[in-house]
TrEMBL record:
It comes from the Eukaryota. GO terms for biological process: nucleoside metabolic process. This is Nucleoside phosphorylase domain-containing protein. Keywords: Signal. GO terms for molecular function: catalytic activity. InterPro entries: NLR-like (IPR053137), Nucleoside_phosphorylase_sf (IPR035994), P-loop_NTPase (IPR027417). Coiled coil: none annotated. Residues 1-25 form the signal peptide. PANTHER family: AAA+ ATPASE DOMAIN-CONTAINING PROTEIN-RELATED (PTHR46082:SF11), ATP/GTP-BINDING PROTEIN-RELATED (PTHR46082).
Length: 387
C-alpha cells in the first residue's frame, strides 16, 4: 500500500527519545518515510496502530517545554494536513494523595471539566497572596471522538476486558536485552514525607532517612492503575514537594509535566502520562522506562477503540477546529496584559494592506518588539480565522 502525507490522521508527540522508543515498540507497522518541506526540521517516524496511520515526532534533544512542543506540532500539522487529533504521550510527575492513590508506574490521562480542558498551564497566570497562583486563559478540550474512546477504554479496564495488559507484556519479547531491561518494572516505590529533602547521590535514595517514608497500603496487583483528571503543564521541572502541593492544593491536579500546553491550542489533543516520580527532590530515572511504556500502551489501547469509519467521518466542528490551526505557527502565547502600542500595530497593518509581504520591527533589546509582533499576529488571526 502506498501512503501519502494525506494518509496520516494522528499526531503522536513525545518529549524524550525514551518515550519515542516506547511509542515505536507498540506500533503495529512501520511505514517508509516521506519527503518533507525544507522549512520542516522535524524528524518523523511513520506507522500505524489498528489501522490508524500515525506520525510520531519527538522534541529536539535537550530542548523541552511548551514552546518547543508548539514549534514541533506546528510544522507537523503543516506537513501532514489531515491530522485529526494529537496524543502527547510520555512520562510525568505524580501528585501523591490518599484519593486518588497515585503510585509510580500508574497512568494519568487528561480529563476535561466544566472549567478546564484537562490541562492547565500553571506558570502562566496571576500570583496571589500567600504564594497561591491563579492560572489565566483556557486551552482547547480534546475532541469528542477521543473522549468517547477514553470512556470505552475505562469501562473495558474495569471489566478486565482491556487489551492493555497484553500490550504491557510486550517488552519481554523485545530482541534487545537493554530494551527489555529499560522497560521492566522496578521494585522500589518510595514516597518520602514532603518536608524531607533528598540526601546524597541523585541516582538513588540509599542515603536518605528511611524513617521519613510515608506508609501506604499494599496493592493486590502490580498492573498500573489509570487515573483521569487535571494535568498541570509548565516550562520548568517540578522537583519540590512543597511547591507541588501548594499549586495542586484545591485544584485536583494529578500530574505535572512540561509540554502539554504547547499542543492543546494547535491540535485537539489527549495527554497521557506515565508516573515516574513524585515531583519532589527524590526525583531520579529508575521508573522512567516503565512509565513511558505504560503511557504508550494506554495510548495504543485508546486508538484500538476508535472505529476506522468514524475517524473518517469527523464532525464538522472538529474539522473546522483543526483547519483553523493549519497555518498557525506562532510558538508563543498571547500576553493578556498587553496594553498600548496601538500606533505601531496600526503602522504594521498598513504595510500589509499595501501588499508588503514582510515587515521587520527594529529597536533596542527589551523594548517590546516581540510582544508587538505576537499581539499583531493574534489580532490578525481573530479577524481572519481561516488563514
Amino acid at each position: 500500500m502506498t501512503f501519502t502525507h494525506g494518509s496520516y490522521t494522528v499526531a503522536w508527540v513525545c518529549a524524550l527519545p525514551l518515550e519515542l522508543a516506547a511509542a515505536k515498540a507498540v506500533l503495529d507497522e512501520l511505514h517508509p518515510l516521506l519527503p518533507q518541506p525544507e522549512a520542516d526540521q522535524n524528524v518523523y517516524t511513520l506507522g500505524s496502530v489498528s489501522g490508524h496511520n500515525i506520525v510520531l515526532a519527538c522534541l529536539p534533544a535537550g530542548i523541552y517545554g511548551t514552546i518547543s512542543a508548539t514549534a514541533v506540532v506546528s510544522h507537523l500539522m503543516s506537513t501532514y494536513p489531515n491530522i485529526r487529533f494529537g496524543l502527547m504521550v510520555g512520562i510525568g510527575g505524580g501528585v501523591p494523595s490518599e484519593n486518588p492513590d497515585i503510585r509510580l508506574g500508574d497512568i494519568v490521562v487528561s480529563k476535561p471539566t466544566d472549567t478546564s480542558s484537562g490541562v492547565i498551564q500553571y506558570d502562566y497566570g496571576k500570583a496571589l497572596q500567600n504564594g497561591h497562583f491563579y492560572p489565566t486563559g483556557f486551552l482547547q478540550k480534546p475532541p469528542p471522538l477521543l473522549l468517547k474512546a477514553v470512556a470505552q477504554t475505562e469501562s473495558d479496564y474495569i471489566l478486565g476486558e482491556s487489551p492493555f495488559g497484553e500490550i504491557m507484556s510486550r517488552p519481554s519479547n523485545l530482541q534487545k536485552e537493554e530494551a527489555r531491561r529499560l522497560f521492566r518494572r522496578p521494585s522500589n516505590d518510595k514516597l518520602f514525607h514532603p518536608t524531607y529533602n533528598h540526601v546524597g547521590d541523585w541516582s538513588s535514595c540509599t542515603e536518605c532517612d528511611q524513617s521519613q517514608l510515608m506508609a501506604r497500603p499494599g496493592r493486590l496487583t502490580k498492573e498500573p492503575r489509570v487515573h483521569y483528571g487535571l494535568i498541570a503543564s509548565g516550562n520548568q521541572v517540578m522537583r519540590d514537594a512543597k511547591t507541588r502541593d501548594l499549586i495542586a492544593q484545591g485544584r485536583g491536579i494529578l500530574c505535572f509535566e512540561m509540554e502539554a500546553a504547547g499542543l492543546m491550542d494547535i491540535v485537539p489533543s489527549l495527554i497521557i502520562r506515565g508516573i515516574c516520580d513524585y515531583c519532589d527532590s527524590h526525583k531520579h530515572k529508575e521508573w522512567q522506562g516503565y512509565a513511558a511504556f505504560a503511557a504508550a500502551a494506554y495510548a495504543k489501547t485508546v486508538l484500538i477503540q476508535i472505529p476506522l469509519q468514524e475517524q473518517g467521518q469527523q464532525t464538522a466542528d472538529l474539522t473546522e477546529s483543526v483547519s483553523k490551526q493549519r497555518h498557525w505557527m506562532v510558538p508563543f502565547y498571547r500576553n493578556p496584559r498587553f496594553v498600548g502600542r496601538e500606533e505601531e500595530i496600526a503602522t504594521i497593518e498598513e504595510f500589509f494592506k499595501n501588499g508588503q509581504p514582510k515587515v521587520a520591527i527594529g529597536g533596542l533589546g527589551g523594548v517590546g518588539k516581540t510582544q508587538i509582533a505576537i499581539e499583531f499576529a493574534y489580532r490578525l488571526r481573530e479577524r481572519k480565522p481561516a488563514c
